[in-house]
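Consider the following assembly input.
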Amino acid sequence: MESEYIIELKGISKYFGNTCALEKIDLSIRNGEFITLLGPSGCGKTTILRLISGFEQPSGGSVHIGGDVVNNVPPEKRHVNTVFQNYALFPHMNVFDNVAFGLKMQKVPKPEIREKVMQALAMVGLQDLAGRKPGELSGGQQQRVAIARAVVNNPLVLLLDEPFSALDFKLRKRMQLEIKHLQRKLGITFVFVTHDQEEALAMSDRVVVMNQGSIEQIGSPVEIYEEPANMFVAQFVGDINVLKGEILEVTPSDLPDSNHAYLARIEGQVFSVHSDRKFNTGDKVNILLRPEDLKVEEEHLEQAPFLAGEIIETVYKGATVDISIRLDTGLELTAAEFFNEDDEDIDYTPGERVAVTWINGWEVVLLDEDA
Amino acid sequence: MKTRNPLIRIFILVVAVWLIIFALVPNLFLLLISFFKPDGHAYVAVDFTLANYQRLLTPSFITIFTDSLRLALASTLICLLIGYPFAYILARAPLRIRPWLLLLIVIPFWTSSLIRTYALINILQNNGILSKLLELLHITSEPVSFMYSEFAVLAGLSYTMLPFMILPIYASVEKLDARLIDAANDLGAGNLRTFWHIILPLTAPGIMSGCILVFLPALTLFYVPDILGGGKGQLLGNYIQMQFTKPIPDWPLGAATSTILTLVLLLMVLGYKWTLKISSQRADFDAEDEEYAGASNIPLQPRGACGLGTRIVPRRRRVSGADAGGDE
Ligand SMILES: Nc1ncnc2c1ncn2[C@@H]1O[C@H](COP(=O)(O)OP(=O)(O)O)[C@@H](O)[C@H]1O
Ligand SMILES: [Mg+2]
């Protein structure tokens, strides 16, 4: 079968001396997709890129590019290019020569080099700065040169290692958009590394969430955010409230897109919860709710079941308002609501009694492994 | 460059005054003397002439000059060929052992180079250590002497000057960002081409300083050819020294020779500036004139409709067939 995957890591392990950087990783990257490796610093993201680009050899397993095993192919013979973490532009060459370097190494004829380089520079909006040296460019411009230098070679795969980490917030946002557009335009597979979950969600077709040398979950941004596979993913990606619960009864599912329904005791109240996962009566579970999934209302007894508590504080965030609530059981929750000047509901004062609920089916239920 | 800090200004002033008194003025004297007439008793006669330079155009002086140049060039080349890989390995050695390796290079400086040159005799002489070694390896069957030959002089010069080649190259290699080498490999350059296009130009200033530091002293280290070469052929160093110390001294001739050496030095400094340009981080344009286009001057790429800011789109649940990944 002609593989739909441009890169495959099969059973990859990587040890540096005794430290294990990667433990039996399996990862398949589709041709043309924008895939992001997301995880805290030191979890092995860079190591994966270096295995793909050929700067490291796996301690076990195999790396496939375009269907071929490339374990022993040196970096200069692999058809992938990298945008390095701090750009690694050649300081003694001007922008043009930096971008032309890869083509020169491929012995592309001079006129063709000139054309391709100017095209690549135009693409990143730097055609006027071709004569400058990297030291004379701003951070964002250097970033663009690094990208042009890589994509001008038309690689099978472009690897980007935290390319925006040195940029300020605004520029970062803009570069995220530009890179995303560029990837769509070129149709080249991008493997992007970041430890910023918001960046990962915003840019990717698929996100690979990593922790301590292994993969915790692979999925689309929506899946990662809304259906975290485990507690690590839930807590690493976005804010989330964790409520302790216990399965009381397995009930027939009343929602079309959930396989299982349960009655569960959550913070002393009995709720109906839904999940694709199978649980047994008596299982201790974590109920995960995003702040924006919580509904905060004035306390009316007839709306039960609900979680009763009082307002600690409200924080105005512009588009939304963050509401901190202490439940009567002692647990603190954060809810986020859209801000609406006319809505006096949101105008809470500290100490005010409230009822917290959520829309049936929006909860994520995971087995509590610590219990 | 303007320095505001008054303390630094004072330091710079002190250094400048020092250099003027002890370097510039003596050299100007030398230049002046080279245009005066020799006078055996009063050393010089104040009388302008170009004759001293004319006297240097004799075949015997030209032989001395070219011999010296050849020896100095050869020992510079030897130092470079040995010193570059040496410095490179040193600069890439694990951080833990680097200071110790550097120390080993510096330790010989603690002994006078004159004494070290005498020590070389033990190695090079008839039945010396080198000779014994060759016999042991059955390369020769009887004792050989390497003394009083050009080989001995070259060995002595190279040995003495090697650290001066290693240290500046070491400094420039250590400054070299290893990620640039990765980047070159990544872009398809093998080791050779990475060396040629990236490593060599970026370490060129170190190479050039090393060459200057080796070449000039090698022209004038008169005791090395004296001791190891047996004073057979004269070199520039001996020649200059002799003009000042012979029974009837000829200061103007010595001064003229020195002046020529200074010219050679100036040429090499120009070469050094050229290497700085090769490895320069700035293009050849007047940075002051041109406003640095900050990020804000970059033409904006078309902006997508979707913002990347806070997630405020009402979301909805239940992604069908969510392949929850990894660890299940
Ligand atoms: N060359 C190396 N030598 C020793 N340990 C390394 C080396 N490179 C990476 N590591 C270790 O491997 C782990 C993963 O590193 P890395 O892939 O750089 O993480 P990330 O990019 O996710 O921050 C870390 O614990 C790091 O210390
Ligand atoms: Mg990293």
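Residues A 45-46, 161 surround magnesium ion (ligand 2) (CB under 6 Å). Ask yourself how this observation constrains the way the partners meet.
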